[in-house]
């Protein structure tokens, strides 16, 4: 007899619980980086969710480290995203924690975050358990609550931006790599048009919102998520803060793809930075060649992201 769908759902959730029954604090062989690769479990409204944490080697008792939350894109998971970005190597050197929440294939068949489903509530539900994971890591591993940032790729970038605008007091900076700005797609039906850059938002009244500073990275040859979305994101931040752009600054790192950087400021305060990378498709710039959605010929997005984040964490609030 065929089981009802809700029974199958409970069975799959039970299997996940069994596989992760002693997961919290369990050590696993990490992607590259000198430290511990820890697996944890947090409860969401509809069942358990898994996350991974990179903890640098040699953390002293009572030492409070910054925390960077990294949200993977579609067709990725925590391990492949960590391997692609190689963020753990930077974390080991610069001494910060990296939290990788992981979407389940039960929640989305391609492992995408529901950044677009604000009308149906799934975006808010996923935001809630990601915040619970952050709180759990702060409690268990003494992460500094005043130095937390969030970043992501593609669907993860869109979810990161949504979290930063919904809970701005929780984050010191946000990094979007190839994502869609919040507010463009309230439903699944509008998500594809938003990804193509075919949806427009009305500008916000200046000074209405105070969001964490934004770094938006995007490939100009991206055929999955239009680079118009990166420009729309920084413009959204600029409108909210009453910021204006400075002159575009062409840059290049050795033989890697050149890129153009534009800073948006309100007075002396940095509000947003746009980095458009020439010849880059839909991939993490500077990412590992063997990993899906990694492009080693681009400038190192992980280094650019942490440099941006570290400056915001060092700045007075």
Automatic annotation (TrEMBL):
Residues forming coiled coils: none
Origin: domain of life: Bacteria
A Pfam short name: Esterase_PHB
Lipid biosynthesis keyword on record: no
InterPro entries on file: AB_hydrolase_fold, Esterase_phb, Plant_Biomass_Hydrol_Est
Alphabetized UniProt keyword annotations: Hydrolase, Signal
UniProt-recorded name of the protein: Phospholipase
Record lineage: Bacteria, Pseudomonadati, Pseudomonadota, Betaproteobacteria, Burkholderiales
GO cellular component entries: extracellular region
A GO molecular-function annotation: hydrolase activity
Membrane-spanning segments: none
Record has Hydrolase as a keyword: yes
